[in-house]
Amino acid sequence: MLNHGPMLLVLGVAPSLAVATTLEPWFPLPHICRGPEALGGRSADSLNSPAGRELVSKEGYRRARHVVGEIRRTAQAAAALNRGDYRAFGRLMVESHHSLRDDYEVSCPELDQLVEAALSAPGVYGSRMTGGGFGGCTVTLLEASAAPRVMQHVQEQYSGTATFYLSQAADGAKVLHL
């Protein structure tokens, strides 16, 4: 394992069987996703006004707030990575997780526990759930030299059995000419 630069730690959780009902409550926003014309010419940000909040249910408002916030966080995260500001990127990861948990309501206790365990370990910049929700994985950005200690700490704090996958950050997907 390399001991320099940031690394990613991925932890998995089995999807919840409680999701066997319907996903409709988590996706009540088709009118918001169709664009400003669906909101009477207003932007999704306008939902923050009292008049905007009347356009959707309380649940719909929370879902929309997550979507709008996630778009904003994504742009901020890209800028943070371009600056090499891993602390700022980590804070955005945590904000995203809290929004997925509280506004979009797609996290589960196991994922929340993994995120909190990772965040309580020295050397961790940020952590969040990833995937479709209701189980899945967390992604944690950490200092490479902290990886063994973080994995031990998470396993000690987590009530289940964690599976760890370490990866170094890379430039992303690209075509390889073989």
Automatic annotation (TrEMBL):
Gene3D superfamilies: GHMP kinase, C-terminal domain (3.30.70.890). Keywords: ATP-binding, Nucleotide-binding, Signal. SUPFAM superfamilies: GHMP Kinase, C-terminal domain. The keyword Iron-sulfur does not apply. InterPro entries: GHMP_kinase_C_dom, GHMP_kinase_C_sf. The keyword Glycoprotein does not apply. Residues 78-159 form the GHMP kinase C-terminal domain. It holds the Pfam family GHMP_kinases_C. It comes from the Eukaryota. Residues 1-20 form the signal peptide. This is Galactokinase-like. It comes from Ceratotherium simum simum (Southern white rhinoceros).
